[in-house]
Amino acid sequence: MRQKITLLSVLLSILLLGACGQSNQSDEEFLTEFDGKLEHVHGIGYMGEKGIAFASHDGLKFYKDKKWNATTKQNNDYMGFNVVDKGFYTSGHPGKGSKLPNPLGIQKSTDGGKTLSDVAFEGDFDFHSMGVGDINHAIYVFNGHGNSQLSSGLHKTLDEGSSWERVKGEGIKGEIVGLAVHPTNEKMVAVSTKNGVYLSKDGGEIFSPLEENLNGTAVYFSENKLWYGTFHSKPKLTSYDLEEETKESITLPKLEQDAVAFFDKKQNTDEMVIYTYQNHAFITKNKGEKWSQIVTSGSID
């Protein structure tokens, strides 16, 4: 009898410990209708039933079925935001009233942003350029200033931040502004810089140029393609077939002295979303044949 009671106690303890990292707050309590200004967006992504997430300087905003919602808690200044198959990874700074350290280092959430857990460098770094694989969760970061925790340059971790490796990044020209990691192949990573777009197939050691002598803006991987934005007198969005090594130009909406800052694609569909440097957002459900504007200069439509 004592053995049964002990076993039950252990099981209850495990269940309680597992629940500690999750919020008991319902979606109805966590989300509220949003009709404000969308500014300082540092990442976007399709987040399951919640819709499209926009990571802003005062928390997450969600767009779904022509409706907008904002979070009521965890209204942090998110940067380096990456949606993955089981939540998201982010860096940035804590919001008003938050007990999180400043800067955030790398945090992750598996419950839509209700709770965050430390991955690495909590209180030490704020990564603006960070890429995370959708399924493999391989993390690449660019760090402009080093300290005792991490030297400057391009680094990666393949074990949730337990160990880090500095990679050469040979072939990259210009300041890195965007990072993307292939969803299943942790050795494939792309960067956009002020001089072009570069692709590595060996874990970040050597990069080959896909575009040069222009501004690279956004980079994003699907399973078979790399999608990237550029600007050279006018904005452009390109899909690059990773197997065939061919390029296809995607028709963009009319953008005046603007370019694609962030891009995401809904899995197994032709639906895509872009966010631009001039704080506009557009959605297409037919691979660019027709775009619908949902944000205009930061004002939601």
TrEMBL record:
Keywords: Signal
PROSITE patterns: PROKAR_LIPOPROTEIN
Secretion signal span: 1-25
Coiled-coil ranges from the UniProt annotation: none
Keyword Signal listed: yes
Keyword Signal part of the UniProt annotation: yes
Protein name as annotated: Sortilin N-terminal domain-containing protein
Taxonomic source organism: Pontibacillus marinus BH030004 = DSM 16465
